[in-house]
Amino acid sequence: MGTIGVRSMTVPEALEKISKALGILAHQTSAENLGGLFSKNRLTEDLLLPLFKIALESPSLRNVNQDRQNFPGIDLADDGARLAVQVTTDASAGKITETLKTFFANDLPSRYDRLVIFHLTDRPPRYTVATKAKWRRVRARGRRFRFDPTRDVITTTSLFRTVQGLPHGEIYKLSDVLAQSIIGERFIDVSQHLKTQSRRQLESEKKWGKYIPDIFIETRETKNLARSFLHPTLFVHRTLESLRRINIPGCNRFLTRSGLPPLPAIRLQPRTRFQNLDAALATADELLAEVQQVSEPLKRYEKFRFKDPPPGPITKQHRPFYDANFYLLPDWGWGLGHSLADIAQELNAARARVFILTGRAGQGKTNFVCDLVENFLWRHEIPCAYTTGRRISAIHAPELADVINKLIFQDQVSSFSEAAGLLAEHASRSNKPFVLIIDGLNEHHRISEFAVQLEQFIEAMLEYPHLKVLLTCRSEFFRQRFGRLTSGPIGSHVFVLEANEQHLEDEAYEEMLAGYFKFFGIAKDRISDQVMESLKRDILLLRFFCEAYGSRGKVGTYRQPWIAAIYRDQIFQIYLEKKLGTADAFLQRITGGVNPIDPKGELIAVLESVLQHMLSTWRFTDVPSSVVPTTLRPALYALLDEELILRQDVPASDSVFTAGTDTINFTFDEFRDFLLAQYMVHRVFATDRGLFDEYVARSDPKESQTVEGIKRFMFYASRRPSNESFWQFYRGHSWYRDVYDVEVFNIDVGLLRVEDQETVRDALRAGGPRAQAFSRDLAIRWHPIHCPVLNLDLLLSIIIAGDDKVFDELVVSTFKRGYHNEGYSCRAFCEFVAKEVIPKFDPTRGDGHDALFKFLVLLLPVDAMADLNSESGLVLRQLLEQHPDYAVSLLRRSLQYAPTRHRAFVWRLLATASGVATDPELVAEATLERERSAALDSVLHGEVSRFLEKAGAHISLQAQ
Amino acid sequence: MIIKLQERSHRESFVLCLPQVVGKDEFLANARVRPGTYAADVFERLYTGIFDRSIELKHDYREYFAVEYATFAEYLRKRLLWSSDVIRDVNREYSKSTQIVYFKPAQSFLDHEYGPALLRKLLKSGRAK
User: How far is A513 from chain B (nearest CA, A)?
Assistant: First the structure.
């Protein structure tokens, strides 16, 4: 990129321009126009700072009011040159005395040796000899600070004299700055342009419900790295503090005592804040190199195995310490390595010029970016512009740079180089980078063309200091379409982060849900707990759900139905109706006509064209837009607007001689699969059975993900009573069986049949992983009223009648603790019963909890210790304490079950229950159990004997 | 005030709301260890762990996050994702504390109920006695 223009001015002309500018400034000041055209802050920041940097030879001069609002005593400072400047319009001696007092009261002589007071006037102020002598006498003990009014009180006139003595290059620079900012030659108010642009975009995001401030939950690590990228001057310092907290000296003591080489030392910088952005970035560079040096030797400790020889030669003297402590090496290496890796990430983010945040759809990228703009960039006064891939695609310009010019400066600058120069200068003055944010790269309608433009734009942008770009993109599009950004010349400037922080605390999930419900008008009291739990774990589904059932955008008489369970096909059906309504309104607006017979007919016809093409080609992306008949073009545009359902794309050309054709894709893949299934059932199956068979016989591993989606939604469709004939045909098909085991639990319980019960029962009896998977799904469906067909009772009927082998497989192995089993483990189950069920349980009410407690008894041996303590045992003790009669009856009934694994535990619990040991019937049963178990099960024999001992003690006590 | 936190990693950590900064000598005196002994070494490391290797939240908030979060409680909620109960307790101590230290101990002897009691004893400052 070129420079801002060819210079054709002479030095006298440049000096004349400077003189004129200073004259105007002084005149405006004396006319007390400061509050109008120039505020104090603008004056110091935009006009005088660049002037003083050159004239006072203070390249690191900065506006200290950026550090802290109303910094006492001074406006500008250069910590390196130890120079401070106060800008004032008050030329009185009192003002200078007051400034000196404040300067001393705040211990500023410890930081600055010289204080310049700049009077915005062209007339030199006059002070008495006594006053000047008094000022000269001002000293700070042990400091070099001196104040000489002849040298340190300056006006525009004296400043001009200084300027005249500057080298020619500096004079030209000053002339450019002052000509633009004071004289008004093409003055561009960068700050105002940026504020207007970003505010407008943020308001638009709020209006369309893409940014909902109430629902934003911070993803801590992502935001942390974004902070380092956006505000290095502040946050590199924080990283430095984090690094200081890492105990490298302690680690080195440990290594030295072990006889191993110490890690290289990191030279930690002094604690003062960075004076400017360049200093912060230089520190980030240096620190990163040092952190990498320390991290390198740690790798061998991280990978160290106990059986390995020592990682280095160990002398006889160090051997005892090494032998006693070598087992700590892997954990220690791993821990320190990870802490340093976090530091390195922050430094890398700070140094990067391009930050790319990727993530799956619906993970909250737009909310993240909007929050960043509103609550971070604006509050820190970091210059920024914010736009979206979609917005950019709506502006027609040959290059992305031109689009950005239009968006920010609205054609007030003639070229990108001029715009970039202005932005870089503005960034430099504010000591913070300028950040351009483009949210949703994948939402650009001509994505391939845009990818090339973006690459070129970033290459050009990199030529200007302090300009940064923050991009967001859906993961799958990023890899396919924008992957080139991470390689080649740009690659080393790019920081890519996959947003995958989904492990929020329960409280945070609840806050997010509450925010969504409030925004979309969802009545929480008309949703079951089960639905709430499902929605917390799937943000994209939550969005579909809220759009489908919320009152926002619906007629006033709308009343939300009771929602007992999540059925994706139902949600998508409602969502489709709603979006077709919105698209129809748009269609009427652009065509000016209404179709009274079939208002949405044309929109559906467009969808059918696309779906039909996808199935016939068995390719589910990039449908050429030419497949949509010309007569349906307005309807296509209506569907493309705001990308409600479809979005437009351009595939990469195979050759430079062929032009890419516009293509169409569905905005959400899962929604596309739903529509494909609907089309297969209602259009293909209903009209052409042969074609249907042909489709379902196709198999292409490349499209397996889509096919899985279609299978799933066809399964849901087949279970609807209105599709009975389809179900009769489809139930025998392999596609149906492929998804049956999982999806049978995801359909409306009212659509389940007796046949399903038989299928599951047979699978449980057959055993194996399939039976275990069914066991898990049945166990969590414990409530017989909410789950009348496939429920815990069905599982219990198999286990209670089965033998110990069935018990071990379906209970002990299936519900044991394990990372793969979180949520289904015995522990999770026990926690649920202890916290949610027992506190509200009333045995007299018969409210369907019996199966739950029966299962709790069967869980007694799961994850049990050798001393027969287990999670379930603890919960049953709680039940025994609170409802002893019910608990004893439950335990006694369990002794009638066919398996024996739980019995020893049951006798242990019965022995602790008061009054039970005196029951003659139970004593007789125990006597029998003792005889039976004597040769077969020593643990059971021991426990039942203990029960009988307790019974004997009771009886003998009674006899006494 | 000492608040024990149960972290997601199942490790225990503490929020130490300190009305006065405790010097190392005073800390070791509270521990009743003799200088130069192994016990003194252990408690010195504990002192360093608290005051040099842990993050001081009041400083962190004031220096880096006060512009972004209007209140200390908002900082704790959004930045550290703590529960509202913990935030309420810590926030109550904000004005009374010189330092609020978020301490993740490496020492297993601070586990369980013993930890807070020991820390309370060690962090007593002369003026507070």
Answer: 16
- The neighbour count for residue A317, using CB atoms within 10 Å, is 8
Sign for the CA dihedral angle at A38, A44, A45, A51 comes to positive
- A716-766 pLDDT tens trace: 999 999 999 999 999 999 999 999 999 999 888 889 999 999 999 999 999
Report in angstroms the alpha-carbon separations of A605 from A251, A445, A638.
69, 21, 13
CB contacts, 8 Å: A379 with chain B:
67-68
Over residues A628-649, the pLDDT tens digits come to 998 888 888 888 866 668 877 6
**Which residue(s) pair with A563 in the sheet?**
A527
C-beta of residue A386 within 8 angstroms of C-beta of residue A469: no
| CA A233 to chain CA centroid, nearest Å | 24
What backbone torsions phi and psi does residue A647 show, to the nearest 5 degrees?
Answer: -135, 155
Contacts of A562 (CB under 8 A, 6+ apart): A526, A527, A528
Q: Which residues of A touch B63 (CB under 8 A)?
A: 238
How far does Cα A652 stand from its chain's mean position? 30
Q: Provide the token pair at B82.
A: 């703590």
- A756: tokens are 């399903």
Assess B53–A contact: CB distance below 8 Å, yes or no.
yes
Please check whether residue A342 is in contact with residue A245, taking contact to mean a CB–CB distance below 8 angstroms.
Answer: no
Low-confidence stretches of chain B (pLDDT < 70) are 7-11, 112, 126-129
CA distance A378 to A386: 11
Distance of CA A93 to CAs A30, A87, A130, Å?
A: 17, 14, 11
CA–CA separation, B81 and A422 (whole Å): 40
- Rounded to the nearest angstrom, the minimum Cα separation between A861 and chain B is 25
Q: What is the pLDDT of residues A743-752, one digit of tens each?
A: 999 888 889 9
The C-alpha of A264 sits at a distance from chain B's nearest C-alpha, in angstroms, of: 19
Which residue of A235, A246, A508 is in closest CB contact with B64? Answer: A235
- Tell me the pLDDT tens digit for each residue of A10-69: 778 778 878 877 777 776 665 554 444 445 545 655 567 878 888 888 888 888 876 666
**Short-list A501, A502, A450, A445, CA closest to A471:** A450
Tell whether the model's pLDDT for residue A504 goes beyond 70: no
- Provide the token pair at B70: 């209007």
Which residues of chain A does B68 touch, with a Cβ-Cβ cutoff of 8 Å? 375-376, 379-380
B81·A245 Cβ contact <8 A: no
Per the listing, tokens 């793969």 go with A820
Which residues, including other chains, have CB under 8 Å from residue A322's CB and lie 6 or more apart? Answer: A258, A259, A260, A310, A314
CA atoms of A808 and A201, how far apart (whole Å):
60
Question: What is the rounded CA–CA span in Å between residue A808 and residue A813?
Answer: 6
Considering only CA atoms, which of A783, A800, A801 is closest in space to residue A792?
A783
**How near does any CA of chain A get to the CA of B19, in Å?**
22
Answer whether B63 touches A (CB < 8 Å): yes
Tokens representing A209 are 């419900």
What are residue A377's phi and psi, to 5 degrees?
-65, -50
Q: Beta-strand (E) ranges in A475-552?
A: 494-498
Average pLDDT, chain A: 84
Contact present, A660 and A452 (Cβ < 8 Å): no
Q: What is the residue type of A951?
A: A
In percent, the amount of chain A with pLDDT more than 70 equals: 88
Flag whether residue B45 sits within 8 Å of chain A, measured between CB atoms.
Answer: yes
User: Which whole-number Å values give the CA distances from A752 to A483, A534, A565, A740, in the listed order?
Assistant: 46, 20, 14, 12
- Relative to beta strand B12-18, strand B2-6 is antiparallel
Distance CA A917, CA A820 (A): 41
Q: Hey, are the CB atoms on A508 and B79 less than 8 Å from each other?
A: no
Contact present, A645 and A544 (Cβ < 8 Å): no
Could A245 and B55 be called an inter-chain contact, meaning their C-beta atoms sit closer than 8 Å?
yes
